[in-house]
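Batch manifest, entry 17 of 40.
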Amino acid sequence: MAQRLLPRTARFAFRVARHVPRSAWPPQARFAYRVVRIAPHVVPHVPGVAPHLPGTARRHRRRGGDSWISGAHPAQAGRADRPSPLPGILPLWVVPALADWWLRRRTHVERTTGTQASAAHALMVAEAGVPPVLGLVARVNPLVLTVMTGAAVAQGATAVYDASLATGARETRPVEQCLHTLLNVLPLTTLALTASLHPDQVRALLHGGPGSHDWRLLSKEPPLPAPCLVALGTVVTAGVVLPYAEELWRCRRAARAREE
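Output type: structure tokens
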């Protein structure tokens, strides 16, 4: 079955080589032979190729293969459980945000750029966290992908505004600049990973989301366990909400002291 995917010249060379002792083959030919023999067990996992290999698909189904190969509807296959990398991305948001808050506290942001820059920075950090948190708690559909894209664009614009406020007004150390770079690429990275895990929803978004549930915010199926939700809320509150609320309060207090 896998030979049908090869060009005609490659199929002819394969048939000729079968009559030559395999020990006389060059290493490249032996490697190509193994690839062709293994391909029927790998191709069914590639969407769009499996329907052209009915025999291989039946063998794969008998061995307990993917529901998409065994005839399940593509919309149902898109909702199947997949190992998500988003829990590993969450520390890439919380840890840099907390470290950036600590560096700004050491440089006394309340005495330099003040409340305006602190509010812009808090908004930038919040926008960076929207895609990973949304990917963890909500079912991925065209609405979620659109919100992730909008958050990435808004976070980039806010980062430019925050940098314009800090330029010439206070010292921006190289470590802080690296942390800002990590926060800036986080929404785009999350969006790319989510789109690669849900190509069916990307296609639905490109076609305008014709489904009845494409533009509704729905909880993930199956939903996260309650301990995971509590842990997520605790980490976000302790690592993002409380530090930046403290920075805003500190900047407002310094502004009132200057006015008095």
